[in-house]
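Box 3.1. Reading complex inputs
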Amino acid sequence: MIRFENVTAYYEKDTPILHNVSFAVERGEAVGLIGANGAGKTTLMRALLGLLPHEGRITVDGTEVTKKTLPEIRRKLGFVLQNSDNQMFMPTVYEDMIFGPMNYGLSREEADARVDAVLVRLDLTELKHRHNHKLSGGEKRMAAIATVLAMEPEAILMDEPTSALDPKNRRLVINTIRELPETKIITSHDLDMIWDTCNRVILLDRGTVVADGASQEILQNCGLLENHRMELPLRLYGR
Amino acid sequence: MNQMDRSLLALREMDILSAGDSPVHRLHPAAKLLTTIAYIAVTVSFGKYQLSSLLVMILYPALLFSLTGIGVGTCLRKLRFVLPLVLAVGLFNPLFDRATLLTVGDVAVSGGVVSMVTLMLKGAFCLSASFLLMATTPIDDLCAALRRLHVPPVLVTLLLLTYRYVGVMTEELSVMTDAYHLRAPGQKGIRFAAWGSFLGQLLLRSMDRADELYGSMQLRGFSGSFAYAGEKRFASRDAAWLVVWVLVFALCRIFDVTGVLGTLVMGGNR
Protein backbone atom coordinates (compact mmCIF):
# COMPACT_ATOMS: atom_id res chain seq x y z
CA MET A 1 0.00 0.00 0.00
CA ILE A 2 2.81 2.43 0.94
CA ARG A 3 6.07 2.22 -0.92
CA PHE A 4 9.34 4.15 -0.46
CA GLU A 5 11.87 3.80 -3.28
CA ASN A 6 15.28 5.39 -2.73
CA VAL A 7 13.78 8.29 -0.86
CA THR A 8 15.94 11.15 0.34
CA ALA A 9 14.14 13.79 2.39
CA TYR A 10 15.41 17.05 3.77
CA TYR A 11 14.46 20.23 5.55
CA GLU A 12 17.31 22.06 3.82
CA LYS A 13 18.52 20.84 0.45
CA ASP A 14 22.18 20.48 1.53
CA THR A 15 21.48 18.47 4.66
CA PRO A 16 19.25 15.45 3.95
CA ILE A 17 17.79 13.69 6.98
CA LEU A 18 16.74 10.50 5.15
CA HIS A 19 19.17 8.82 2.75
CA ASN A 20 17.95 6.43 0.03
CA VAL A 21 15.28 4.82 2.15
CA SER A 22 13.35 1.94 0.58
CA PHE A 23 10.64 -0.26 2.05
CA ALA A 24 7.02 -1.20 1.47
CA VAL A 25 4.08 -1.54 3.82
CA GLU A 26 1.21 -3.83 2.85
CA ARG A 27 -2.45 -3.17 3.63
CA GLY A 28 -3.39 -4.12 7.19
CA GLU A 29 0.20 -4.23 8.46
CA ALA A 30 1.17 -2.54 11.72
CA VAL A 31 4.70 -1.23 11.38
CA GLY A 32 6.78 0.27 14.18
CA LEU A 33 9.36 2.83 13.12
CA ILE A 34 12.04 2.94 15.78
CA GLY A 35 15.35 4.69 16.13
CA ALA A 36 17.26 7.05 18.39
CA ASN A 37 16.64 10.80 18.40
CA GLY A 38 17.47 12.27 15.03
CA ALA A 39 17.21 8.90 13.25
CA GLY A 40 14.64 10.33 10.81
CA LYS A 41 11.40 8.74 12.01
CA THR A 42 9.29 11.89 12.02
CA THR A 43 10.99 13.12 8.86
CA LEU A 44 9.97 9.91 7.12
CA MET A 45 6.35 10.42 8.11
CA ARG A 46 6.38 14.06 7.08
CA ALA A 47 7.83 13.14 3.70
CA LEU A 48 5.12 10.51 3.24
CA LEU A 49 2.47 13.13 4.01
CA GLY A 50 4.01 15.64 1.63
CA LEU A 51 4.96 18.02 4.41
CA LEU A 52 8.61 17.85 3.44
CA PRO A 53 10.34 17.88 0.06
CA HIS A 54 11.87 14.60 -1.04
CA GLU A 55 13.71 12.94 -3.86
CA GLY A 56 13.02 9.39 -4.98
CA ARG A 57 9.56 7.90 -5.18
CA ILE A 58 6.90 7.55 -2.50
CA THR A 59 3.63 5.93 -3.52
CA VAL A 60 0.37 5.26 -1.71
CA ASP A 61 -1.80 2.68 -3.44
CA GLY A 62 0.22 3.28 -6.58
CA THR A 63 -0.29 7.06 -6.53
CA GLU A 64 2.96 8.95 -6.28
CA VAL A 65 3.22 11.62 -3.59
CA THR A 66 3.48 14.87 -5.51
CA LYS A 67 2.07 18.33 -4.93
CA LYS A 68 -0.77 17.53 -7.28
CA THR A 69 -1.80 14.29 -5.60
CA LEU A 70 -1.57 15.54 -2.00
CA PRO A 71 -5.34 15.91 -1.41
CA GLU A 72 -5.85 12.31 -2.55
CA ILE A 73 -2.88 11.03 -0.51
CA ARG A 74 -3.91 12.91 2.63
CA ARG A 75 -7.42 11.61 2.35
CA LYS A 76 -6.02 8.09 2.62
CA LEU A 77 -3.55 8.78 5.40
CA GLY A 78 -4.45 9.99 8.88
CA PHE A 79 -1.68 11.49 10.99
CA VAL A 80 -1.75 11.67 14.78
CA LEU A 81 0.79 14.26 15.85
CA GLN A 82 3.10 13.83 18.82
CA ASN A 83 1.76 16.96 20.48
CA SER A 84 -2.03 16.75 20.63
CA ASP A 85 -2.20 20.51 21.32
CA ASN A 86 -0.95 21.05 17.80
CA GLN A 87 -3.54 18.69 16.41
CA MET A 88 -6.58 20.02 18.24
CA PHE A 89 -7.01 23.59 17.11
CA MET A 90 -10.78 24.01 17.27
CA PRO A 91 -12.61 24.95 20.48
CA THR A 92 -14.37 21.62 21.08
CA VAL A 93 -13.74 17.95 20.31
CA TYR A 94 -16.81 17.85 18.07
CA GLU A 95 -15.70 20.84 16.00
CA ASP A 96 -12.23 19.35 15.66
CA MET A 97 -13.61 16.00 14.57
CA ILE A 98 -15.94 17.51 12.01
CA PHE A 99 -13.20 19.73 10.54
CA GLY A 100 -11.64 17.05 8.30
CA PRO A 101 -14.84 15.46 6.96
CA MET A 102 -16.34 18.89 6.19
CA ASN A 103 -13.20 19.91 4.32
CA TYR A 104 -13.61 16.83 2.18
CA GLY A 105 -17.08 17.93 1.19
CA LEU A 106 -19.25 15.77 3.41
CA SER A 107 -22.62 17.18 4.37
CA ARG A 108 -23.21 18.18 7.97
CA GLU A 109 -25.38 15.10 8.53
CA GLU A 110 -22.81 12.70 7.06
CA ALA A 111 -20.03 14.29 9.07
CA ASP A 112 -22.15 14.14 12.24
CA ALA A 113 -22.83 10.46 11.68
CA ARG A 114 -19.11 9.77 11.25
CA VAL A 115 -18.24 11.70 14.40
CA ASP A 116 -20.81 9.82 16.44
CA ALA A 117 -19.69 6.45 15.06
CA VAL A 118 -16.05 7.13 15.92
CA LEU A 119 -16.89 8.39 19.40
CA VAL A 120 -18.90 5.24 20.08
CA ARG A 121 -16.14 3.06 18.64
CA LEU A 122 -13.54 4.62 20.94
CA ASP A 123 -15.96 4.93 23.87
CA LEU A 124 -15.45 8.70 23.97
CA THR A 125 -19.04 9.89 23.65
CA GLU A 126 -18.80 11.98 26.79
CA LEU A 127 -15.96 14.01 25.27
CA LYS A 128 -18.01 15.17 22.27
CA HIS A 129 -18.87 18.66 23.43
CA ARG A 130 -15.98 19.14 25.81
CA HIS A 131 -13.63 22.07 25.26
CA ASN A 132 -10.22 20.92 24.06
CA HIS A 133 -8.33 23.02 26.58
CA LYS A 134 -10.17 21.30 29.41
CA LEU A 135 -9.16 17.77 28.41
CA SER A 136 -6.52 15.83 30.30
CA GLY A 137 -3.43 14.61 28.43
CA GLY A 138 -4.90 11.14 27.94
CA GLU A 139 -8.28 12.44 26.83
CA LYS A 140 -6.60 14.83 24.44
CA ARG A 141 -4.57 12.02 22.87
CA MET A 142 -7.65 9.85 22.45
CA ALA A 143 -9.56 12.80 21.00
CA ALA A 144 -6.68 13.43 18.57
CA ILE A 145 -6.93 9.81 17.40
CA ALA A 146 -10.69 10.29 17.05
CA THR A 147 -10.27 13.38 14.86
CA VAL A 148 -8.13 11.32 12.50
CA LEU A 149 -10.46 8.31 12.49
CA ALA A 150 -13.37 10.60 11.62
CA MET A 151 -11.73 11.04 8.23
CA GLU A 152 -11.91 7.27 7.70
CA PRO A 153 -8.31 6.99 6.50
CA GLU A 154 -7.00 3.77 5.01
CA ALA A 155 -3.77 4.04 6.98
CA ILE A 156 -2.97 5.77 10.23
CA LEU A 157 0.41 7.29 11.02
CA MET A 158 1.18 8.00 14.66
CA ASP A 159 4.09 9.98 15.99
CA GLU A 160 4.95 8.93 19.56
CA PRO A 161 1.35 8.17 20.51
CA THR A 162 2.14 7.22 24.10
CA SER A 163 4.60 9.99 24.96
CA ALA A 164 3.84 11.96 28.15
CA LEU A 165 0.97 9.68 29.19
CA ASP A 166 0.54 8.10 32.59
CA PRO A 167 0.50 4.25 32.72
CA LYS A 168 -3.30 3.97 32.66
CA ASN A 169 -3.76 6.32 29.71
CA ARG A 170 -0.80 4.72 27.95
CA ARG A 171 -2.49 1.33 28.27
CA LEU A 172 -5.77 2.81 27.03
CA VAL A 173 -4.06 4.25 23.94
CA ILE A 174 -2.20 0.96 23.31
CA ASN A 175 -5.43 -1.05 23.51
CA THR A 176 -7.14 1.41 21.18
CA ILE A 177 -4.30 1.20 18.65
CA ARG A 178 -4.33 -2.61 18.78
CA GLU A 179 -8.00 -2.67 17.92
CA LEU A 180 -7.69 -0.37 14.90
CA PRO A 181 -7.97 -2.54 11.77
CA GLU A 182 -6.42 0.10 9.51
CA THR A 183 -2.84 -0.06 8.25
CA LYS A 184 -0.64 1.54 10.92
CA ILE A 185 2.79 3.11 10.96
CA ILE A 186 3.86 4.12 14.45
CA THR A 187 7.02 5.92 15.49
CA SER A 188 8.06 5.60 19.10
CA HIS A 189 10.81 5.21 21.63
CA ASP A 190 8.36 3.20 23.71
CA LEU A 191 9.48 -0.22 22.49
CA ASP A 192 7.09 -2.04 24.81
CA MET A 193 4.24 -0.26 23.08
CA ILE A 194 5.71 -1.19 19.67
CA TRP A 195 5.95 -4.80 20.88
CA ASP A 196 2.26 -4.72 21.81
CA THR A 197 0.93 -3.00 18.72
CA CYS A 198 3.15 -3.81 15.73
CA ASN A 199 3.89 -7.01 13.90
CA ARG A 200 6.80 -5.51 12.01
CA VAL A 201 9.57 -3.10 12.94
CA ILE A 202 11.81 -0.88 10.84
CA LEU A 203 14.90 0.36 12.63
CA LEU A 204 16.30 3.65 11.40
CA ASP A 205 19.66 5.15 12.25
CA ARG A 206 20.99 8.44 10.92
CA GLY A 207 18.46 8.50 8.13
CA THR A 208 18.91 4.96 6.80
CA VAL A 209 17.05 1.70 7.31
CA VAL A 210 19.35 -0.62 9.26
CA ALA A 211 16.89 -3.42 10.03
CA ASP A 212 13.44 -4.44 8.85
CA GLY A 213 11.66 -7.53 10.13
CA ALA A 214 9.28 -9.14 12.59
CA SER A 215 8.85 -7.10 15.78
CA GLN A 216 9.84 -9.80 18.22
CA GLU A 217 12.90 -10.68 16.20
CA ILE A 218 14.27 -7.13 16.10
CA LEU A 219 13.13 -6.04 19.54
CA GLN A 220 14.91 -9.00 21.18
CA ASN A 221 18.16 -8.37 19.32
CA CYS A 222 20.10 -6.60 22.05
CA GLY A 223 23.26 -6.21 19.99
CA LEU A 224 21.46 -4.67 17.04
CA LEU A 225 19.55 -2.23 19.21
CA GLU A 226 22.58 -1.17 21.22
CA ASN A 227 24.64 -0.69 18.08
CA HIS A 228 22.08 1.83 16.98
CA ARG A 229 21.69 3.74 20.25
CA MET A 230 18.62 1.83 21.45
CA GLU A 231 17.85 -0.54 24.33
CA LEU A 232 15.76 -3.67 24.73
CA PRO A 233 12.10 -3.16 25.65
CA LEU A 234 11.74 -2.97 29.44
CA ARG A 235 9.69 -6.16 29.55
CA LEU A 236 12.71 -8.17 28.36
CA TYR A 237 15.02 -6.99 31.12
CA GLY A 238 13.69 -9.47 33.71
CA ARG A 239 14.47 -12.45 31.50
CA MET B 1 -0.97 31.42 37.53
CA ASN B 2 0.92 34.09 35.61
CA GLN B 3 -0.51 37.03 33.68
CA MET B 4 -0.37 35.07 30.43
CA ASP B 5 -2.38 32.18 31.86
CA ARG B 6 -4.98 34.67 33.02
CA SER B 7 -5.16 36.17 29.53
CA LEU B 8 -5.52 32.71 28.06
CA LEU B 9 -8.31 31.90 30.46
CA ALA B 10 -10.02 35.17 29.61
CA LEU B 11 -9.84 34.29 25.93
CA ARG B 12 -11.26 30.84 26.55
CA GLU B 13 -13.96 32.30 28.77
CA MET B 14 -15.30 34.03 25.66
CA ASP B 15 -15.44 30.66 23.88
CA ILE B 16 -17.34 29.21 26.82
CA LEU B 17 -19.74 32.18 26.99
CA SER B 18 -20.41 31.94 23.27
CA ALA B 19 -21.17 28.23 23.55
CA GLY B 20 -23.99 28.98 26.00
CA ASP B 21 -27.68 28.53 25.35
CA SER B 22 -30.20 31.37 25.33
CA PRO B 23 -32.71 32.79 22.84
CA VAL B 24 -29.98 35.15 21.63
CA HIS B 25 -27.38 32.38 21.33
CA ARG B 26 -29.80 30.43 19.18
CA LEU B 27 -30.27 33.26 16.66
CA HIS B 28 -28.55 33.09 13.31
CA PRO B 29 -25.07 34.72 13.55
CA ALA B 30 -25.76 36.88 10.49
CA ALA B 31 -28.87 38.32 12.15
CA LYS B 32 -26.88 39.19 15.26
CA LEU B 33 -23.98 40.56 13.26
CA LEU B 34 -26.16 42.81 11.10
CA THR B 35 -28.17 43.98 14.11
CA THR B 36 -24.95 44.87 15.92
CA ILE B 37 -23.64 46.73 12.88
CA ALA B 38 -26.93 48.64 12.60
CA TYR B 39 -26.84 49.40 16.32
CA ILE B 40 -23.29 50.75 16.17
CA ALA B 41 -24.01 52.78 13.04
CA VAL B 42 -27.09 54.39 14.60
CA THR B 43 -25.39 54.96 17.96
CA VAL B 44 -22.39 56.76 16.50
CA SER B 45 -24.63 58.86 14.24
CA PHE B 46 -26.14 60.81 17.15
CA GLY B 47 -24.96 64.40 17.35
CA LYS B 48 -22.57 65.43 20.07
CA TYR B 49 -25.26 67.30 22.04
CA GLN B 50 -28.00 64.67 21.56
CA LEU B 51 -27.40 63.13 24.94
CA SER B 52 -31.02 62.60 25.93
CA SER B 53 -31.89 61.00 22.56
CA LEU B 54 -28.87 58.71 22.85
CA LEU B 55 -29.91 57.39 26.25
CA VAL B 56 -32.64 55.25 24.73
CA MET B 57 -29.97 53.20 22.92
CA ILE B 58 -29.21 51.48 26.21
CA LEU B 59 -32.33 49.45 25.55
CA TYR B 60 -30.59 47.00 23.17
CA PRO B 61 -27.62 45.97 25.35
CA ALA B 62 -29.83 45.98 28.45
CA LEU B 63 -32.31 43.59 26.85
CA LEU B 64 -29.51 41.35 25.59
CA PHE B 65 -27.90 41.17 29.02
CA SER B 66 -31.26 40.17 30.42
CA LEU B 67 -32.05 37.59 27.70
CA THR B 68 -28.63 35.93 27.73
CA GLY B 69 -28.09 35.91 31.48
CA ILE B 70 -24.59 37.30 30.93
CA GLY B 71 -23.72 39.64 33.79
CA VAL B 72 -22.93 43.30 33.22
CA GLY B 73 -20.01 42.68 35.59
CA THR B 74 -18.56 40.11 33.17
CA CYS B 75 -18.77 42.66 30.38
CA LEU B 76 -17.12 45.37 32.47
CA ARG B 77 -14.38 42.96 33.53
CA LYS B 78 -13.67 41.98 29.92
CA LEU B 79 -13.66 45.57 28.73
CA ARG B 80 -11.74 47.00 31.67
CA PHE B 81 -8.69 47.81 29.57
CA VAL B 82 -10.54 49.27 26.59
CA LEU B 83 -13.30 51.17 28.35
CA PRO B 84 -10.99 53.74 30.01
CA LEU B 85 -9.46 54.53 26.62
CA VAL B 86 -12.88 55.04 25.08
CA LEU B 87 -14.02 57.09 28.03
CA ALA B 88 -10.90 59.22 27.80
CA VAL B 89 -11.66 60.24 24.22
CA GLY B 90 -13.91 63.13 25.18
CA LEU B 91 -12.06 64.10 28.33
CA PHE B 92 -10.81 67.42 26.97
CA ASN B 93 -14.10 68.55 25.47
CA PRO B 94 -15.12 70.58 28.59
CA LEU B 95 -11.92 72.63 28.20
CA PHE B 96 -12.59 73.62 24.60
CA ASP B 97 -16.37 73.94 24.56
CA ARG B 98 -17.34 76.10 27.53
CA ALA B 99 -20.53 77.65 26.24
CA THR B 100 -23.50 76.88 28.49
CA LEU B 101 -25.82 74.47 26.77
CA LEU B 102 -28.38 73.83 29.48
CA THR B 103 -28.99 74.35 33.15
CA VAL B 104 -29.92 71.67 35.63
CA GLY B 105 -31.51 73.51 38.54
CA ASP B 106 -29.02 76.33 39.13
CA VAL B 107 -26.07 74.47 37.64
CA ALA B 108 -24.99 75.50 34.17
CA VAL B 109 -23.82 72.62 32.04
CA SER B 110 -21.45 73.44 29.20
CA GLY B 111 -21.60 71.96 25.73
CA GLY B 112 -18.21 70.36 26.39
CA VAL B 113 -19.55 68.35 29.33
CA VAL B 114 -22.58 67.19 27.34
CA SER B 115 -20.46 66.18 24.34
CA MET B 116 -18.00 64.41 26.63
CA VAL B 117 -20.76 62.35 28.25
CA THR B 118 -22.30 61.67 24.83
CA LEU B 119 -18.99 60.39 23.48
CA MET B 120 -18.44 58.24 26.55
CA LEU B 121 -21.89 56.72 26.30
CA LYS B 122 -21.50 56.06 22.58
CA GLY B 123 -18.24 54.23 23.24
CA ALA B 124 -19.63 52.23 26.14
CA PHE B 125 -22.79 51.26 24.22
CA CYS B 126 -20.89 50.20 21.11
CA LEU B 127 -18.36 48.21 23.11
CA SER B 128 -21.03 46.41 25.09
CA ALA B 129 -22.94 45.58 21.89
CA SER B 130 -19.75 44.17 20.35
CA PHE B 131 -19.02 42.24 23.53
CA LEU B 132 -22.54 40.78 23.50
CA LEU B 133 -22.13 39.72 19.88
CA MET B 134 -18.87 37.91 20.69
CA ALA B 135 -20.27 36.44 23.90
CA THR B 136 -23.30 34.95 22.17
CA THR B 137 -21.73 33.84 18.88
CA PRO B 138 -18.84 31.38 18.51
CA ILE B 139 -16.07 32.78 16.35
CA ASP B 140 -16.58 30.06 13.72
CA ASP B 141 -20.26 30.94 13.41
CA LEU B 142 -19.38 34.60 13.17
CA CYS B 143 -16.91 33.88 10.38
CA ALA B 144 -19.47 31.71 8.62
CA ALA B 145 -21.88 34.66 8.81
CA LEU B 146 -19.23 36.98 7.36
CA ARG B 147 -18.72 34.57 4.47
CA ARG B 148 -22.47 34.46 3.95
CA LEU B 149 -22.41 38.25 3.72
CA HIS B 150 -19.78 37.88 0.97
CA VAL B 151 -16.84 39.19 2.95
CA PRO B 152 -13.75 37.92 1.04
CA PRO B 153 -12.63 34.48 2.29
CA VAL B 154 -9.06 35.71 2.80
CA LEU B 155 -10.22 38.31 5.32
CA VAL B 156 -12.48 35.87 7.13
CA THR B 157 -9.82 33.16 7.37
CA LEU B 158 -7.34 35.79 8.53
CA LEU B 159 -9.73 36.88 11.27
CA LEU B 160 -10.35 33.31 12.40
CA LEU B 161 -6.70 32.30 12.37
CA THR B 162 -5.69 35.49 14.18
CA TYR B 163 -8.20 34.70 16.90
CA ARG B 164 -6.82 31.19 17.22
CA TYR B 165 -3.21 32.34 16.90
CA VAL B 166 -3.54 34.75 19.82
CA GLY B 167 -4.22 31.72 22.01
CA VAL B 168 -1.21 29.84 20.62
CA MET B 169 1.08 32.84 21.13
CA THR B 170 -0.20 33.39 24.64
CA GLU B 171 0.38 29.72 25.52
CA GLU B 172 3.97 29.92 24.32
CA LEU B 173 4.47 33.20 26.15
CA SER B 174 3.06 31.65 29.32
CA VAL B 175 5.48 28.69 29.19
CA MET B 176 8.43 31.01 28.52
CA THR B 177 7.45 33.45 31.27
CA ASP B 178 7.19 30.59 33.78
CA ALA B 179 10.57 29.23 32.69
CA TYR B 180 12.10 32.71 33.05
CA HIS B 181 10.70 33.38 36.51
CA LEU B 182 11.72 29.96 37.80
CA ARG B 183 15.32 30.95 37.15
CA ALA B 184 14.92 34.59 38.13
CA PRO B 185 13.30 34.42 41.55
CA GLY B 186 12.14 37.68 43.06
CA GLN B 187 12.45 39.54 39.78
CA LYS B 188 9.47 41.63 38.75
CA GLY B 189 8.69 41.26 35.07
CA ILE B 190 11.31 40.43 32.49
CA ARG B 191 14.62 42.27 32.55
CA PHE B 192 14.95 44.78 29.72
CA ALA B 193 18.24 43.19 28.58
CA ALA B 194 16.46 39.84 28.08
CA TRP B 195 13.64 41.25 25.97
CA GLY B 196 15.41 40.83 22.64
CA SER B 197 16.19 37.15 22.99
CA PHE B 198 12.87 36.54 24.74
CA LEU B 199 10.84 38.03 21.90
CA GLY B 200 13.04 36.35 19.30
CA GLN B 201 12.50 32.97 20.93
CA LEU B 202 8.79 33.65 21.23
CA LEU B 203 8.61 34.42 17.53
CA LEU B 204 10.53 31.27 16.57
CA ARG B 205 8.54 29.04 18.91
CA SER B 206 5.19 30.42 17.83
CA MET B 207 6.23 30.06 14.19
CA ASP B 208 7.01 26.39 14.87
CA ARG B 209 3.67 25.91 16.61
CA ALA B 210 1.87 27.70 13.78
CA ASP B 211 3.67 25.51 11.26
CA GLU B 212 2.61 22.34 13.10
CA LEU B 213 -0.96 23.56 13.39
CA TYR B 214 -1.07 24.47 9.74
CA GLY B 215 0.36 21.06 8.84
CA SER B 216 -2.34 19.41 10.92
CA MET B 217 -5.00 21.46 9.14
CA GLN B 218 -3.60 20.63 5.71
CA LEU B 219 -3.57 16.93 6.54
CA ARG B 220 -7.27 17.16 7.23
CA GLY B 221 -8.09 18.69 3.90
CA PHE B 222 -7.77 22.41 4.66
CA SER B 223 -7.11 24.27 1.44
CA GLY B 224 -7.42 27.91 2.36
CA SER B 225 -11.01 28.37 3.41
CA PHE B 226 -12.94 26.90 6.29
CA ALA B 227 -15.85 24.55 5.79
CA TYR B 228 -17.82 25.90 8.70
CA ALA B 229 -19.38 23.24 10.86
CA GLY B 230 -21.86 25.51 12.54
CA GLU B 231 -23.70 26.95 9.54
CA LYS B 232 -27.35 27.40 10.44
CA ARG B 233 -30.41 28.14 8.37
CA PHE B 234 -31.57 31.76 8.38
CA ALA B 235 -35.06 31.32 9.83
CA SER B 236 -37.99 33.72 9.92
CA ARG B 237 -37.38 34.52 13.60
CA ASP B 238 -33.84 35.62 12.66
CA ALA B 239 -35.24 37.90 9.99
CA ALA B 240 -37.83 39.20 12.46
CA TRP B 241 -35.12 39.91 15.06
CA LEU B 242 -33.10 41.88 12.51
CA VAL B 243 -36.02 43.82 11.02
CA VAL B 244 -37.62 44.72 14.36
CA TRP B 245 -34.36 45.97 15.82
CA VAL B 246 -33.42 47.97 12.74
CA LEU B 247 -36.86 49.60 12.89
CA VAL B 248 -36.45 50.32 16.60
CA PHE B 249 -33.01 51.84 16.00
CA ALA B 250 -34.37 53.94 13.15
CA LEU B 251 -37.26 55.18 15.30
CA CYS B 252 -34.87 56.02 18.11
CA ARG B 253 -32.73 57.96 15.66
CA ILE B 254 -35.53 59.84 13.96
CA PHE B 255 -37.62 60.66 17.00
CA ASP B 256 -36.41 61.84 20.36
CA VAL B 257 -37.92 58.85 22.19
CA THR B 258 -36.43 59.85 25.54
CA GLY B 259 -37.86 63.34 25.13
CA VAL B 260 -41.29 61.99 24.20
CA LEU B 261 -41.23 59.61 27.17
CA GLY B 262 -40.10 62.44 29.42
CA THR B 263 -42.90 64.69 28.25
CA LEU B 264 -45.43 61.90 28.75
CA VAL B 265 -44.16 61.18 32.27
CA MET B 266 -43.91 64.84 33.24
CA GLY B 267 -47.29 65.50 31.65
CA GLY B 268 -48.79 62.63 33.57
CA ASN B 269 -47.44 64.01 36.81
CA ARG B 270 -48.96 67.39 36.35
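In summary: Chain B touches chain A at residues 12, 15-16, 19, 138-140, 164, 171, 209, 212-213, 215-223, 227-231 (CB under 8 Å).
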